[in-house]
Specification:
alpha+beta; 355 residues; 34% helix; eight-stranded mixed sheet; 10 helices; globular; single chain
């Protein structure tokens, strides 16, 4: 039996309306996420750290609402719609559960020149599926886009916007690295800014210079330009993308590896299979360079889920895009991801693309 197509949450309007619509539609899932992610705060299990948590919230509240003032109204609308305390809604979007150790799921992202010289891009989001929603967002100010927020947040991560900008995110997991928590910005809010307001990879790179966050990133725009970087809280390495090729999983490569080892990085976490997944993707890219189609990428990402593979038991979503040829189409599969699970969506409307 094939995996059913993803039912996209439709959000449209001004910031408070976006939040109110999400909060109302996903109230039960949001309260479940609060229990899973913030339960220790509610039960008092982290009472000793509460002052640090509160300082984390206040710092991010000041920073985020200064840089992205529209998010304040959206978060407050979300809290109202879900019947949630505003402070808890802010803690969710600010990743308060990770104030001590900052990391995320293990994901994979790639770009390569495909058939006809068109850049093909795709990858996976590997994290607990039950936390997430697929959303089509049509803001009153900015670009329409599709992405996958944790329910109860104003996040974005991998996705596509109506300008034909495709983003891939892979967590940058660096055992042994210390960093200044007081400088960190949640990567999910930076990606929200990129998808809502950026049209080109040049604008994405400008965000990498401006904000201090952790992630590996692959961006492709509708002109076929590719940007790939490792971003590590105050600095970043832009990776060469020869002929439009890029691939990142969850560890630093090249100059980023050298820079982070100087800060204590001890090497990839073997439990994440990051080097193995990188090798799988680069091997597939080498075999399909200059001839890959959307169908080829779907077959690759939709291979039978296996531990340690690109598509594995933790893969919540997989996406494929070819912005030059199809600037408004995002192919999405939800867990369990198979080649038959992919469906095409129009990023302008959030509706399935009819063949």
């Amino acid at each position: 039996m094939p995996t059913p197509p993803l039912s996209l949450l439709r959000l449209a309007g001004r910031p408070r309306e976006l939040g109110l619509q999400q909060g109302t539609a996903l109230a039960n899932q949001i309260h479940a996420n609060v229990a899973v992610l913030l339960g220790d705060f509610l039960t008092g299990a982290k009472a000793a750290q509460w002052e640090k948590i509160r300082a984390w919230q206040q710092r991010l509240r000041a920073f985020c609402f200064d840089h992205w003032p529209h998010l304040q109204e959206e978060i407050h609308g979300l809290a109202e719609g879900a019947g949630l305390d505003r402070e808890l809604a802010e803690l969710l979007s600010f990743r308060a559960w990770q104030y001590e150790v900052y990391h995320a799921g293990a994901c994979s992202s790639f770009a390569l020149p495909g058939a006809g010289g068109m850049i093909l891009t795709g990858g996976t989001l590997d994290d607990p599926r039950f936390l997430y929603a697929g959303a089509h967002v049509a803001p009153a100010d900015g670009l329409r886009f599709i992405s996958f927020p944790i329910a109860g947040t104003v996040w974005a991560n991998r996705g596509l916007n109506e300008a034909g900008l495709a983003l891939g995110i892979s967590s940058l997991i660096c055992p042994g690295v210390s960093f200044n928590l007081d400088q960190l910005v949640p990567v999910d809010l930076v990606f929200r800014d990129m998808l809502q307001f950026c049209s080109s990879v040049a604008e994405v790179e400008a965000r990498c210079r401006r904000y201090k966050f952790f992630c590996n990133l692959v961006a492709v725009d509708r002109h076929g330009r590719v940007f790939s970087s490792s971003n590590y809280c105050g600095d970043y390495t832009a990776h060469p993308a020869p002929d439009g090729s890029a691939c990142l999983t969850n560890h630093p490569i090249g100059a980023a590896d050298t820079a982070l080892r100087a800060r204590g990085y001890t090497g990839p976490d073997p439990a994440g299979f990051s080097p193995e997944r990188l090798a799988q993707i680069t091997g597939w890219m080498d075999a399909h360079r200059h001839r890959a189609t959307v169908s080829d990428a779907i077959a690759f990402l939709g291979a039978m889920p296996q531990p340690g593979r690109v598509n594995n038991q933790h893969t919540a979503f997989a996406t494929v895009a070819m912005p030059q040829a199809h600037p408004h189409t995002l192919w999405i599969a939800q867990q369990p991801v198979t080649s038959a699970a992919f469906h095409a969506f129009d990023v302008r409307t959030g509706s399935p693309v009819l063949n």
